[in-house]
Known about the structure:
This protein is of the alpha/beta class and 264 residues long. It contains eight helices and eight strands, in the order H-E-H-H-E-H-E-H-E-H-E-H-E-H-E-E.
Amino acid sequence: MSIISLKNLFWLLSFGFVAAILVWILAFNIQPRTINKIKLSPFATPLVAANSIQLRLQEELRQSPVWLWGLLPEEEFEVKVLFEFLTRPAGNIPPFDELWLDEELQLKGLVSSVSNGKSAPQVPQVRILHLRDSIQQLAQELAQKLAQKPRRVLIVTATPFAATFLNGSPAWVLAQEKDLNFKSLLLANFPRRRGDEEKIELPCRLPPRDETGTGELGCRIQQKARSLYRHRMTSGDIVGVMDQISSRDFLFLLTKEPPTDGAN
């Protein structure tokens, strides 16, 4: 084989390799690396956390008319962060026209609060729905609604349902609507010591142990948590960190800093 032919073969293989990587990235809707949005920090109150979201994601919040907000309903701090976000809007971020609440969360207190015009004047329309069972219909409805008239919609659901990279999740279904411009904010707790990794709501599980289908999300949480074990914070403080982990998904981890006992 001639030198010229070898060079052509080399460039052909190189081009094919790069093209394969690009196709893989686009197909799985992921980025080559995560982007840190909020470094590990203490959050004295839910309002401080809500303000941090508005500050660090202000450009994304302005540009995307639809947001999925995933939270764990048993985590009281996470629910309060959402409430503060809704009731204290940032002046430089357009308000949401509609709030869709997933019935499975059973956030009755939040529903009554945001339905009160005085509490959340920037969300005039609140809708209760069963997201998982009606996501196909809702995806089409949302796409049609946005095509007819500019609307800003905030959809609140469980954290795994809001993750676009979990195959079959409601967010994944929404992502199949090619013209639907949306982002997802995923709130979850995370371990601060290796011994607590199995105690969190979304632990890392690989097949065949991943019976719920949320294992990939848990593994991303665990990966981030392990990178922070050496960074100690004040015991008892609520601490958190946020990364952009895909083109659509922002992972905001919050937990209470445990006592310092030397265990990792």
